[in-house]
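Quick one: structure tokens for this chain, please?
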Amino acid sequence: MEWIADAARDLAEVAPRWNFIWLYDAKSGGKILSGIWMTIKLSVACLFFSMIVGLLGAWLQGSPNRILRAFVQGYIQFFRNTPPFVQLLFFYFALGQFTPSVVAADGWTVEPIISNVGWAIISLSFFAGAFNVEIFRAGIEAIPDSTREASEALGFSRTQTFRYVVFPLALRVCIPALNNNLVNLVKTTTQAFGIAVPELLYQSVTIWNDYPSAQYPTMLLLFVVYIVLVGILVTGMNKWEREMRIPGYGT
């Protein structure tokens, strides 16, 4: 791969504005790789927890308890009607002040029990989860009442009906809308830059701050990486949708 590094150096000399420094500088290359890895971990964690939040919220919306239903509706309105970046700052700077701290391994410094990465996962998961609640709710309401009644006639409890009958069918209805929301979530992870989470955008900014000539190539890399990541997610979701399709069910 030495020829790639040599070509990048030669290009930087001929066209200074296209300095692909992370192709021949080990430190910059390490920043890009660690940024990509952090972006992947952050995206996977947020995707997983937002799905859990969405599923739990949709199930609670069908609860006979009015307080639970009102709580879920308030959660949805709060997170859908405020910008995700403002939520991120609120979680980190406001709620973060009330979280306890522990002594670090060095015995001297004090660290909060929830890091900036943890707050990013929490904030973005709750943000996307609010939309997932409505997506799952729409899928659940698409299931005919006769299906639930048949399940209850067989002796299934409400939880069993939801787990074994309603949810498997509702999921098939939800996948297209869920696909769109999860794609938006992956792109929204760039906002973790605001609380210094070392994801790809953050690492890219540190590179072009040190080497302004690397700004254009690094921005191009950002576009390519996110196109690839979102493309992988969309391909996987489309494959999942095809495999989950029930002939004649209308999905």
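The chain has one domain: 16-244.
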